[in-house]
Amino acid sequence: MAQIRLENLNKRFSDFVAVRNTNMQINDGEFFVLLGPSGCGKTTTLRMIAGLELPSDGKILLEGDDVTFLRAAQRDIAFVFQLFALYPHMNVRQNLSFPLENQGMKRSEIDAHIADVAKLLRIEHLLKNKISSLAGGDRQRVALGRAIIRRPKAFLMDEPLGTLDSEFRELMCSELRALHDRIKATTVYVTHDQLEAMAMADKIAVMSKGEVLQVASPTEIYRRPATRFVANFIGSPAMNFLPSQRGVRAGANKVMVHDAEIPVPVIQEESKNDLTLGVRPEDVVVSSEGALRGEVFGVEYMGSRQLITVDTQAGRLKVKAPNDVQASIGDNVGLTFRTEHLILFDNATDRALKSEWMSDVREAAVAHG
Amino acid sequence: MADVSLKAVTKRFGKLAAVNEVSLEIKNGEFVVLLGPTGAGKTTTLRLIAGLEKLDGGSVMISGHDVSSAPIADRDVAFVFQQYSLYPHYTVYDNLAFPLRSPLRREAEDVIRKKVNDIAKMLRIDSKLANKSTKLSGGEMQRVAIGRALVRSPNIFLMDEPLSSLDAKLREELRVELKRIQIDRGATILYVTHDQIEAMTLADKIGVLENGRLVQLGTPKEVYTKPNSVYVAQRLGSPPMNLLPVGLLNQHFPSSTKQVGVRPENIRLGHDGKTARVVQLEPLGSETVVVLEVEGQRVEALSDIGTRWRVGQETKVSVLPQNSLYFDERGQRLEAA
Predict the structure, then answer these.
(1) Which chain A residue has its CA at the smallest distance from B235's CA?
(2) Which of A35, A312, A337, B99 is deepest in the core (most CB within 10 A)?
(3) pTM of the predicted model, to two decimals?
(4) Omega before B321 cis (within 30°)?
(5) CA dihedral of B265, B270, B273, B276, whole degrees rounded to 10
(6) pLDDT in tens, B105-147
(7) Are A223 and B263 an interchain contact pair (Cβ–Cβ within 8 Å)?
């Protein structure tokens, strides 16, 4: 198992900077997710860790050893592309033994490896079955088994679930995470899907345009996003952004949104720029009161919750509400906000302003343990 | 707009009954969603109504007339496909106006202009009318594709996963807009999807399909809270409903119960009941899925983000009787005694 460190890593493709001054540490046994939209540099970063791409400058350390210029094969890292690629004409055992035979491993050793993996993934009873006869979930488990059977120091995965339909993706997220909890192999996982990242990661690094914007636990990133970009990228339905006033003093505890005065956590730094108030849908309450008023545009039943869309003078808002809240299309409603979770973003820098909430680190983030 | 009804509609492909005696009423102004996994018969049902496939049995009625063997053009339905199919060399305006300029209609250009402008405004693409359709983003293209169907007033709109090729944020945005447009215009829509969130949020009624058969039809709330079977229960809800052995969390149940279904949001944590150990945590953002082990059984619960959990921690789990569903050996739901 391994710790991976990136120091001032840069990658340029002629004039284009794909990865810029990236520093991060991936701890031994951590499930680390590189998250961002396409073109943000996440795959390039992963390929540099794998040794499939050489950095323009900077260092890559694996267990403290500088591997920056070692070839991929010398790094003992397994690169997993798509999980579903199995040989349909072979049985489960043959699929599992294939990567080991390719390494020239002895038969007895291969059998021991297969027995271990089959037990770990609970597919011992399926070893003689043809791939084509397996149910979808079992098939994915076999695919996982083939990825882990080589026991590398670290796993690098590039959107391994990208081609699966949503039902399987959820199932596989769960399986992957459970497997990780059992074998604790350092894993670097690339995805553009924030739900996947949230469900699996110990830590998420959110990237945009070649830069790392924030590295933190899923819960921390969700609750205290460092920039508006991060706030918008994480969470579904997305955070609401309301245009607010220009400039704020340190010590302020309210801001204006349209003509409504909204209490906010005490702001701890000054800004002279235009500001945006960020509010998660579950932190808005529909009531008869509230300085900000609006008209209900839509009400969506979601089983355990409902989603209410409200058009206000400050734009369209989504509210995640319990099912007992009564709202119908066309209703004029008031909106109040859970003050302690509100975030002010500086439009000029995209950054969240320091506040009582943003610097509150007493709450330990939910960790996977 | 019109009432549409299916009576024992059947379609076979070789030995396979892709659609098997499906009967369904879609009332004027109603939004009905057919939900099911790939191969359940959703798209075939749409194509049978449109006349793109021939029936092997049963009948399709539109406004009380049997159109089972009527040609496509006589049925006056509008079809929206998963992949937007626009004319790339046309502007947005011309794409929207196209169905109105059909030689069968010959509407006056000023009437067309008004209709196109109204629809464009409603779908918030009015600033793009002069653009070539290839110059649009994916979300804008699908808006135009939907707009091109809405610009007419057909008997019924048939929509085949129209939002599935869009990214999650756009899908959310368009979903609530589509529902609002349907309400405002009183449009009759039959919509096909495998996405349970779309089904629950859009539908007045959801029809759940299983291997070509319609196994339940009801309001989203009915289907979610009173599913007829394990199959239906598992189609709705994320994370999915827990299926638990009899007696694990419940003391009282109908005698032929083989499995008990409990939705994750209805698992009560920390109050009283059986001892459970937290084995996995999956943060979703505003909520966290807490995976527990109770007497060797995996149970998923939903917890709000304010509560802190640790893997390995012990807690108590219970469920209220009114939040339990009882299923027999065939997976059919039993009424609680």
Answers:
(1) A167
(2) A35
(3) 0.86
(4) no
(5) 90
(6) 778 999 999 999 988 988 888 999 999 988 888 778 888 998 9
(7) no
